[in-house]
Amino acid sequence: MIYRTMRMRCPQCWNYIAASQGNDVIKGSCSICHAVFFQRFINGDSVIRIHNKKAQ
Questions:
Q1: Nearest by Cα to 50 from 30, 36, 29, 33
Q2: Taking the model in full, what pTM does it have?
């Protein structure tokens, strides 16, 4: 699978971040709110999963 880097907004805090895009999957993590998210496209619908990490 080939990933490419893209610039997008964090779905949690709307900060601009660098995310990786692969085959129908976008992965990224925000350095401001420490959220890790996965976006998948299934049958034309976008499904976003957000996991909040606690700041160390």
A1: 36
A2: 0.70
